User: Which sequence fits this backbone?
């Protein structure tokens, strides 16, 4: 039995009772003590004490924080990198490979043509990462994708996960025509489909392509790559929020096996849920989740539920209240714009009239419900459902959480605080879509108060923030930078009054997220008894200029006392 003492330039513990230290002692994968170097050495006494002390000075010039906790991401990112990336922003895969962004429609078509030439055939060509809102003057449609192929089906999955765009060959092969009654099939002014498929009901009409996409999300390597992306950004605890169908025995077995393989670099929470559009009996799903919660291990956790109530703001499918969207695209709206009711303010993916009953099934089972609510109307429906559940079945410490929380109002935050609800805020939107939200989707005033971390903090709501990878890259340093600086991609400040301090941001990235997951007794701070999980940074986030926060290098992580170095960017492996 031995004790490893990690010595660092500085340790920020996120424990307000002991905020900083210079060394941390680890035994059996847990934190034995934290403090000065001499205090840690005292744990190994002359007669053996608690064990032989081994001093590890690997991090003598680095800064340690609790391992970042990602409370909203998707394991499918591990499979995305098997498909061509056509997103607007540069990204790096879990192996460090760099993919330049496609800044124009022509560059998207060029990337797809290259992929078609590299892997020719008749099966659908599937790519990911697109968001047409970045292309000035026009929205990518089927006619554009015909420039890739007029015979081979082409299916491009949007980065939001809520839309896709197909070429005319795919529309023909799947029988998606002017008579198609499915909500979410976007149309030209003449009534013909334009190639954009909004939300799952419409996307799933592209049967062969959608099947290929989903097949890319299966396999052991998907889970490994997901964890590698987290490790590369300093995360030791990641949450697969609603990707996995835990009722699928094969998917469940894969998680239970892979996460416990030697060298796996993260702890994982896997949420249960009905997926897009609901489905299944919530009482049965609640019972299954309670059973799985009892099977949780140190590495793999169960016990939360994910519901998806609305769509995406940049896709114009999130449920927003009056006056609706600022500048919705001319034409191209889906016929039968909502799966439940047609109001022109976005799509309901669950029946809002049933939310109290749906949430109630999980609430009464003692589970925590995390609900996707991009729009303020969606947040209102979920908050009302929780309020009704608490009136009928009072329960303390439920931690029901509004996920994304993008347009949540101050009044809604006050109600959330009164009921003990949490917020997981999508701060990355400030950078990735802030300019578009201001100029196109919701207008200047609402955009300035989006992703309102300062309001959540002021109103006493426990909050964290997230990447929602693969929607945006996993990395809490970037998400923190967004919450602190609120800079858009063009460098504009969007709602300076909603900025928070570096300290508040780092707490949201660690102990705040751990609280939401109900694992704050295990991770989220560096203190005796918790898992020895650390983020290892090259610079001190409390010391650098706040504008450089996102640029701090990540050495890697420590998980249970084991060092997990990050993959570095491979300059020789650059995507064309």
Assistant:
């Amino acid at each position: 039995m031995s004790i490893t003492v990690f010595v660092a330039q500085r340790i920020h513990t996120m424990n307000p009772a002991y905020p900083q230290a210079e060394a941390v002692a680890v035994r059996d994968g847990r934190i034995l003590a934290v403090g000065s170097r001499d205090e840690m050495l005292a744990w190994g006494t002359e007669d053996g004490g608690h064990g032989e002390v081994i001093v590890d000075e690997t991090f003598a010039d680095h800064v340690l924080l609790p391992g970042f906790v990602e409370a909203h991401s998707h394991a499918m990112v591990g499979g995305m990198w098997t498909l061509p990336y056509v997103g607007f922003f540069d990204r790096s895969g879990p192996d460090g490979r760099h993919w330049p962004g496609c800044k124009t429609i022509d560059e998207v078509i060029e990337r797809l043509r290259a992929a078609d030439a590299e892997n020719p055939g008749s099966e659908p060509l599937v790519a990911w990462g697109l968001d047409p809102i970045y292309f000035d003057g026009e929205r990518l449609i089927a006619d554009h994708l015909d420039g890739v192929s007029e015979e081979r089906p082409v299916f491009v999955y949007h980065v939001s996960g809520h839309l896709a765009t197909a070429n005319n060959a795919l529309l023909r092969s799947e029988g998606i025509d002017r008579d198609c009654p499915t909500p979410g099939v976007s149309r030209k002014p003449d009534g013909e489909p334009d190639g954009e498929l909004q939300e799952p009901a419409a996307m799933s009409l592209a049967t062969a392509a959608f099947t290929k996409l989903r097949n890319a999300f299966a396999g052991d390597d998907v889970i490994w790559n997901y964890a590698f992306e987290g490790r590369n950004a300093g995360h030791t605890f990641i949450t697969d929020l609603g990707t996995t169908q835990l009722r699928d025995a094969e998917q469940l077995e894969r998680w239970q096996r892979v996460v416990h393989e030697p060298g796996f670099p993260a702890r994982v929470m896997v949420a249960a849920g009905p997926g897009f559009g609901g489905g299944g009996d919530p009482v049965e799903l609640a019972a299954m989740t309670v059973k799985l919660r009892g099977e949780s291990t140190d590495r793999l956790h169960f016990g939360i539920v994910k519901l998806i109530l609305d769509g995406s703001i940049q896709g114009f499918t999130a449920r927003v209240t009056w006056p609706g969207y600022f500048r919705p695209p001319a034409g191209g709206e889906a016929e039968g714009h909502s799966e439940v009711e047609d109001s022109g303010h976005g799509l309901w993916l669950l029946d809002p009239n049933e939310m109290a009953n749906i949430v109630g099934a999980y609430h009464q089972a003692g589970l925590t419900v995390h609900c996707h609510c991009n729009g303020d109307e969606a947040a209102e429906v979920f908050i009302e459902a929780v309020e009704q559940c608490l009136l009928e079945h009072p329960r303390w410490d439920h931690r029901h959480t509004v996920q994304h929380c993008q347009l949540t109002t101050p009044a809604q935050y006050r109600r959330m605080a009164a009921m003990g609800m949490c917020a997981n805020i999508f701060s990355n939107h400030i950078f990735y879509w802030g300019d578009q939200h201001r100029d196109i989707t919701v207008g200047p005033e609402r955009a300035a108060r989006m992703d309102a971390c300062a309001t959540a903090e002021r109103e006493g709501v426990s909050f964290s923030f997230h990447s929602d990878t693969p929607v945006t890259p996993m990395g809490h340093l970037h998400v923190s930078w967004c919450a602190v600086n609120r800079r858009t991609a063009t460098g504009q400040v969007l709602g300076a009054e909603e900025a928070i301090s570096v300290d508040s941001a780092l707490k949201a990235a660690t102990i705040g997220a751990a609280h939401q997951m109900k694992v704050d007794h295990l991770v989220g701070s560096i203190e005796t008894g918790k898992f020895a999980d650390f983020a290892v940074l090259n610079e001190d986030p409390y010391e650098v200029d706040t504008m450089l926060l996102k640029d701090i290098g990540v050495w890697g992580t420590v998980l249970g006392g084991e060092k997990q170095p990050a993959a570095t960017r491979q300059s020789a492996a650059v995507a064309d």
Remarks:
- Residues 21 and 35 are 5 Å apart (CA to CA).
- Residues 70-74+237-310+349-516 form a domain with the TIM Barrel fold (CATH 3.20.20.140).
